[in-house]
Write a structure and sequence with these properties.
With 363 residues, the protein is an alpha+beta fold. It is built from 3 helices and 24 strands. It is 27% helix and 35% strand. Strands 2, 3, 18, 19, 20, 21, 22 and 23 form an 8-stranded antiparallel sheet that branches.
């Protein structure tokens, strides 16, 4: 019996020890503080004053001011093409030729008709002169003379018509050779040897290289800043240096697919080594007075639906959304109204923040 009591006492002592140890462990865990997660770090910028002008930068392509779509003035089968895309040609140079056999036959028929009408005209003239002499001698009546006069007049008209038809056939024969109307470069080839083309069908495009310009596409919200005669800076990616351009033409309608307006600028003293098709960059300055707008990086804009907003860091290091009005884009910068130059604006990670969230900045 005593042995059993001793065993029970030992077990109770062990249980008490375990209970005390567990209590101490729980107390230690309770006293350990759980550290809060670190505040998110944000990159902030201070809005800068836009001043009076802001530049718009557009990619551009070098083109010729005059581009001619060349076509034959008569139909037929092309038997030779003497140029390639990119070929330099001179005014009067033969570019394509179509089969001239039908045109030759028409010319032969026209010339034969001219000879026939000339013979009839000579006969009518001789008859008229003969009966005119007889009429002076009162050998024939006036009615007879009138008949021969009418026959002569008809012969003259028939001869003139035959000459005109022969000349037209000669022109058709000349039209079988397509020639360059000016010095330039062939930019497009739309037909090949063996193809049958109709009169007026474009087969080649000739770009005159004596007067070059650049072409840009302008979105509709920037069109108000561009006008005929406005100057711009033009730089070429493959050629060193910068030149001036003048807005010469603004398309009256937007492109049906891109919804942009084509604008062409004439180049003032372009570099001598630029070529058609080269890429360029056009820098246009806005003429609007911008006194209450600021410039921000494009990454600072937080777009929700149709509204543009930015995150402002308050003096309590909390972020709050503020509505802004976007006025213009220029590269990676955006011109906005609605904030001041004293505001600290979050410039990156704008889609990861919550209203009123505490943050820490790089400062």
């Amino acid at each position: 019996m005593a042995q059993k009591i001793c065993t029970v006492v030992k077990i109770l002592k062990r249980l008490c020890s375990l209970l005390i140890l567990s209590t101490l462990l729980i107390a230690g865990c309770a006293e350990k503080k759980v550290e809060p997660p670190p505040l998110p770090m944000v990159k902030t910028v201070t809005a800068s004053q836009a001043g009076k002008i802001m530049s718009d930068v557009y990619p551009a392509v070098v083109k010729g001011r005059y581009e001619s779509n060349l076509a034959f003035q008569t139909g037929g089968r092309i038997i030779s093409r003497d140029v390639e895309k990119g070929s330099f040609v001179s005014a009067g140079q033969v570019l394509m030729t179509i089969d001239a056999r039908d045109a030759v036959q028409q010319l032969n028929a026209g010339e034969s008709q001219v000879e026939l009408c000339r013979s009839q005209l000579n006969l009518a003239k001789s008859n008229l002169e003969r009966y005119a002499a007889l009429y002076k001698e009162n050998a024939v009546a006036a009615a007879t003379l009138d008949q021969y006069q009418a026959a002569y007049d008809n012969a003259v008209a028939a001869y003139n018509a035959a000459v005109a038809q022969a000349e037209q056939a000669r022109n058709v024969l000349n039209y079988t050779e397509l020639t360059a109307n000016a010095d330039g470069v062939i930019s497009t080839v739309n037909a090949e040897a063996g193809q049958v083309v109709s009169a007026g069908q474009t087969v080649l495009t000739l770009v005159q290289a004596d007067e070059l310009e650049v072409e840009i596409d302008v979105p509709e919200n920037h069109l108000k800043n561009i006008s005929i005669g406005k100057t711009a800076d033009v730089t070429f990616w493959a050629v060193q240096g910068r030149t001036q351009g003048v807005v010469r033409e603004i398309a009256p309608m937007a492109d049906s697919a891109a919804r942009t307006y084509r604008v062409r600028l004439s180049l003032i003293n372009p570099p001598p080594n630029i070529q058609l098709g080269m890429t360029a960059e056009v820098i246009l300055n806005s003429a609007d007075e911008i006194t209450d707008a600021v410039i921000l990086p494009l990454s600072a804009i937080y777009q929700t639906g149709n509204a543009a907003q930015v995150w402002i860091v308050t003096n309590e290091n909390k972020v709050t959304l503020k509505n802004v009005t976007v006025e213009n884009f220029s590269g990676n910068e955006v011109l906005v109204r609605g904030i001041s130059t004293r505001d600290k604006v979050v410039a990156a990670g704008v889609h990861k923040l919550r209203e009123g969230e505490l943050v820490r900045s790089e400062e």
